[in-house]
Amino acid sequence: MDASLEKKLIETITPLYKKGRDGDWEHILRTVDLCRYLLKHENGDPNIVLPAAYLHDLGWSVVDYADFNAATPLEKTKTISFMQHMEQGAILAGKILNDLSYDETKTREIQRIIKIHDLPETVFKKPNINATLVVEADRLDRYGKTGITRFKTMFGKGKITGPYWEEARQLRKEGLKMWFITPTAGHLAQKLATEMGLFD
Ligand SMILES: [Fe+2]
C-alpha cells in the first residue's frame, strides 16, 4: 500500500477505533503486522489485504456490543452485534476508501472481505487468498502472549480463569484446525498456541 495513503488511512481511522472496543486499535496494528508477515510467504494483494486489515473491525465503533461482551465465548457468534459489526464495518470501509479516492474494484473486494471476516468457514469455502490472509491474521491475534493480554483487555482480568477461560481455550484449540489454511499461518498459530500455554 502506498505510504502516503496508509498515513491518511491511519489518521482517519485511529480516532474511530478509540471509540470502539478497548484494545481494538492495538489489535488492528498487530493484525496489519501479521498480514505483512503472511504476505512475505503467501500470495495475496497487499493493496487489498492491508487496507482490509486496517478497516476490518471498524464496525465495532458504531454498534452496541453489550450482548457480545455478555455472551459466553461459544455464544458470541450468535449475538446481534457480531453480525452487525461486519455489515457496518463494510459500509464504513466503503465510505472511507471512497473519500480517499481508492480504486473502486479494490474497495469493493475489501468490503466483501470485511462483511464476512469473522466467518472463517464461509471465507474458506470460496478460495480467495486475500480474504484468507485477513481471516488468518485476525485469528492469529487470539494466540500468543498478546492474545492473552487482549482477552483480558476486552473481557476483564477475572475472565482469564475458570469456565469462561476454559471455553475460550477450547475454542482456540479447535481453531487451530479450523481457522488457518495457509502453511505460514498454520505454523505460526501452533507456535503462538504453545507460547500461550494452550497445550499445558
Ligand atoms: Fe479483528
Automatic annotation (TrEMBL):
Q: Does the keyword Hydrolase apply?
A: yes
Q: Tell me where in this chain the HD domain is found.
A: 25-142
What InterPro entries does the annotation carry?
Answer: HD/PDEase_dom (IPR003607), HD_domain (IPR006674)
| Molecular-function GO terms, alphabetical | hydrolase activity
What CDD domains is this protein classified in? HDc (cd00077)
* Record keywords, A-Z: Hydrolase
Q: Which organism is it from?
A: Desulfotignum phosphitoxidans DSM 13687
The protein depicted here goes by the name Putative metal dependent phosphohydrolase
Q: Which Gene3D superfamilies does the entry mention?
A: Hypothetical protein af1432 (1.10.3210.10)
